[in-house]
Here is the input.
Amino acid sequence: HVQPEDVKVWMAAVAALGAACCCFIFIAFLNRKLQRQPIGRDIGVPKLDALAQQVKSGSRAFLKEEYKYLVVFVSTLAVVLAILYGTNPVSGTREEAWDDG
Here is the structure.
């Protein structure tokens, strides 16, 4: 039997999935619209393409540097959480442990 609580959870999930689908459709629309726009050589400004290439190169360099720091942060956080869980694991045997029904 379906319980009223299950219906509420399902309704919340459907709303979130519907919103996500709408976002993906909107992203696809914007991407298609952007891809149809003329670029530098098409409008007689080849210098614009060179500038765009420099911006693209700089953004890739920035992201590469950013990911170096992100890898260190996420790895450190994972190790700390693993140590904390290893010293105090959550199991269903303790009274204050999570009760999943």
Q: What stands out?
A: The mean pLDDT is 87. DSSP finds two helices and no strands in the chain.
